[in-house]
């Protein structure tokens, strides 16, 4: 049991030990490292619970058949549009997209649409676009979107095409819970 936990958290344990050693030799750098880690933890703890509640509701309220119809293998442009829309209206940092991705896998969403969703979360988020327009102007933002949206779609289909079929099956099976 302890070996299993140690193996699972080896990166965290190693980072913690290194930070403690740094603190022993230079308390200023060490304490700053701990403050940054604590700040990141506070941010994560404020984002993750609401995401988990929303995901729980989506998991219960939206049947697998509906997700497959609108975002599954035969969804076409409808699935692409929904993936971009959901990724664009999302809130929170990228790590909040991973639990959502797990739900999409569980619901049978086409893998290319999942990759499109994740890329859209990164580059087409509405909250980020508003800031970008105010900082860099609408011409720049529009030009970037005209490049990014096709790129997001191409990336989704490219990753899907390059994934070995057996790996895709394994990913879907491991997320059926």
Automatic annotation (TrEMBL):
The keyword Secreted does not apply. Signal peptide: none annotated. The chain crosses the membrane at residues 9-25, 45-62, 82-105, 111-133, 145-163. GO terms for cellular component: plasma membrane. It is found in: Cell membrane. Pfam families: ArsP_1. The keyword Nucleus does not apply. It is a multi-pass membrane protein. InterPro entries: DUF318 (IPR005524). Keywords: Cell membrane, Membrane, Transmembrane, Transmembrane helix. Belongs to the UPF0718 family. This is Putative permease.
